[in-house]
Specification:
It is a single chain. The chain has about 375 residues and is α/β, with parallel strands linked by helices. It folds into two domains: about 5-160, DHBP synthase (Alpha-Beta Complex), CATH 3.90.870; about 170-260 and about 295-370, Rossmann fold (3-Layer(aba) Sandwich), CATH 3.40.50.10990. It is built from 14 helices and 14 strands. A hairpin with a 6-residue loop joins strand 9 and strand 10. The longest helix has 25 residues, at about 5-25. It is globular. The protein starts with a helix and ends in a 16-residue tail after the last helix.
């Protein structure tokens, strides 16, 4: 290895470590200093902002605080806007910040400015940390001395982190794990693809990798997969897929750590509370500041390629998954629907996915008697 290449890899490793530490800091409720050139921002997650810290920051900010809001949240606040922005905060008023970030009835009452690249990296950091996607930021100069142990990370390193993780996806280990209804199964664990999380390929049976392989991309759903939640059909889809593969020449389930369409478990539960108040699944996410789907599937295609798969028969209702695999260079020979049981709690959810996100749900959930399923 040449000296220049060695130095480049050391710098790349240092950048990755800095971002991963920044993710941990944000999740712990501590500030992070993000810089780009001469620009520096002290970034706080609104998710973890407490009254004592808000009062401390108000004494320091002298009117320089800004609240960075994602585009979906700005739309819920009454703006027709496709880009994120920030509002000035004359005072670090926790009640006002929480209203702008979460309240369902609040409307914007102040001008919204466009973001710089360093502001955008603050939102990306919150997304990587899977916390509420609203950031309180203060200028780094003049405030960083008050937080001397604050972690420092570059904006470019944050923005490049996802791509670097996708490129660094690697197989960690594999072992046979017999499943109910699919006793000949193997779990293959990959690291990378989505931040610091592990991803799993479940090889059911003995699929012929020289032929098109039946596959499913299944995003983790703690409530449905493990606890049998009636709000979705995820658990049924997962188990029915494994059973189908076991009975039909095998296949591969990619179990992807993308809870809540990539928003994380805490935000998924927040969205469930909003759904209980009458919002549909996509409107609930928008209230919180999320787009309809935060997931990416390019790394899933790479998992398949590392397993030796180049042609697939995909079991899905989601056209985005089909398009993502094709864009990543896999040949999609066919696609097959996979439906769970309908019940009184999930019919609206399924109809919303069909009507608003184009999911290929062939039966009309709203015209089916859920008490007979």
């Amino acid at each position: 290895m040449t000296a220049n290449l060695f130095q480049k890899e050391r710098m790349s490793s240092a950048a990755t470590i800095a971002v991963e530490r920044a993710i941990a800091e944000v999740r712990a409720g501590r500030p992070v200093l993000i810089s780009e050139g001469q620009a520096q921002l002290l970034v706080f997650s609104v998710d973890a902002l407490e009254p004592a810290m808000a009062a401390r920051l108000d004494a320091l900010a002298h009117g320089t605080g800004r609240l960075v809001l994602p585009a979906p949240r700005l739309r819920r606040l009454g703006l027709e806007r496709e880009e994120a922005g920030f509002v000035a905060l004359p005072h670090i008023d926790l009640a006002r910040i929480q209203a702008l970030a979460l309240d369902i009835n609040t409307r914007i009452d102040t001008p919204v400015a466009s973001l710089s690249h360093v502001h955008q990296s603050a939102l990306e950091l919150l997304s990587l940390a899977q916390v509420l996607p609203t950031a309180l930021v203060l200028p780094g100069d003049g405030t960083r001395d008050q937080f001397p142990s604050t972690l420092h990370v570059g904006a470019a390193d944050i923005m490049g982190y996802r791509g670097a993780q996708n490129a660094a996806l690697r197989l960690i280990g594999r072992a046979p794990v017999p499943l109910e209804g699919a006793q000949t199964s193997e779990f293959v664990v990959f690291r990378g693809g989505e931040g610091m999380r592990d991803q799993v390929a479940v090889i059911v049976g003995k699929p012929d990798l020289s032929q098109p392989v039946t596959i499913r991309l299944h995003s983790a759903c703690l409530t449905g997969d493990l606890f049998g939640s009636l709000k979705c059909d995820c658990g049924d889809q997962l188990r029915d897929t494994a059973r189908f593969m076991a009975e039909n020449e095998g296949g591969i389930i990619l179990y992807l750590d993308q809870e809540g369409r990539g928003n994380g478990l805490s935000n998924k539960i927040r969205a469930y509370q909003l759904q209980a108040q009458g919002f549909d699944t996509y409107d609930a996410d928008e209230v919180l500041g999320f787009d309809h789907d935060q997931r990416g599937f390019a790394f899933a295609a790479d998992m398949l390629k590392q397993l030796g798969v180049n042609q697939v028969r995909i079991m899905t209702n989601n056209p985005l998954k089909i398009a993502a695999l094709e864009e990543a260079g896999l040949k999609v020979v066919s696609d097959q629907r996979i439906m769970g049981r309908l019940n009184a709690h999930n019919v609206r959810y399924l109809a919303t996915k069909r009507d608003r996100a184009g999911h290929m749900i062939e039966t009309d959930p709203t015209k089916t008697d859920p008490t007979k399923t």
